[in-house]
Specification:
10 strands; Arc Repressor Mutant, subunit A; three-stranded antiparallel beta sheet; alpha+beta
Length: about 260
């Protein structure tokens, strides 16, 4: 999005309240998928008619597509291209249908962002590249990348994991990189992610890695692997536990029987 542009008023003109529009904007930017309870978390309200009216309206306008994963329970996919155009990301990967595991990952990412409302998250590949290259003056060679400069599919920060920036009084900002574990049996994905981000992490004066999971099973192993690679550096690691249920294995069953 262009600096200073706020898509929320444009989404409001589609018939949403300001809070509804802000939530849809958040989902479009960071996840593409959402749950009923996540909207309730966002507006800090108990379940009731308010959330039901919002979801019914969004489904009727074909902005959200419900996916049933248990009787009467749904995951909602924000699929409408109009909304992605309004956030200046018409070709966002969030519009595409995902596997059950990928949907769980997206929902966990959104939960993590909702758990940190005071943090400023970099909202796109362009925003991430612009922050590290233009504000911190780091060479783009330090940034994680898939493909080379000659490839049309080349992407910086291809994992699309959340990156947040917290300004510090009179000092360098704290950059928080979240790695979301959606149910990994091993640390191989985290090890690969650390390798891709190693140059950038070593280049930052103040940074942290947040290992996000819905079980603490891999926390000790992740800390050991991190300390093995970054012993003596100023980069720190901490765990963030998401205490929510993500019943997506049953969704696969529901999909095949519809």
């Amino acid at each position: 999005m262009s600096p200073g542009y706020d898509p929320v008023p444009d989404i409001e003109r589609l018939g949403y309240t300001e809070r509804e529009a802000a939530f849809l904007c958040l989902v479009a930017i960071h996840s593409g998928y959402c749950l009923r309870r996540q909207y309730l978390h966002f507006i800090e309200r108990d379940d009731g008619a308010m959330v039901q009216r919002f979801l019914q309206k969004a489904v009727e306008r074909e902005h959200l597509r419900p996916i049933e994963y248990a009787t009467g329970r749904h995951v909602y996919h924000l699929k409408a291209k109009l909304l992605y155009r309004l956030i200046a990301q018409p070709d966002s990967q969030n519009r595409r249908e995902k596997s059950d595991r990928e949907i769980k990952l997206r929902l966990m990412q959104l939960d993590y962002i909702l758990d940190h409302p005071a943090q400023k998250f970099l909202e796109s590949e362009a925003a991430k590249v612009g922050f590290f290259r233009d504000k911190l003056r780091l060479p783009v060679t330090t940034l994680p990348r898939r493909g080379d400069e000659t490839s049309s599919n080349s992407r910086y920060f291809p994992d699309r994991m959340p990156v947040a920036v917290t300004e510090q009084n009179g000092g360098s900002p704290l950059v928080s990189f979240a790695f979301v574990d959606e149910g990994q049996r091993s640390l191989s994905s985290f090890e690969r992610w650390l390798g891709q981000h190693a140059n950038l992490l070593h280049s930052l004066p103040l940074a942290e890695v947040v290992y996000v999971a819905d079980t603490p099973r891999n926390f000790d192993g992740a800390e050991h692997e991190f300390n093995r690679r970054f012993s003596g550096s100023r980069v720190k690691i901490r765990g963030h536990l998401l205490e929510y249920d993500y019943p997506l294995w049953s969704m696969k069953y529901r999909r095949t029987t519809l």
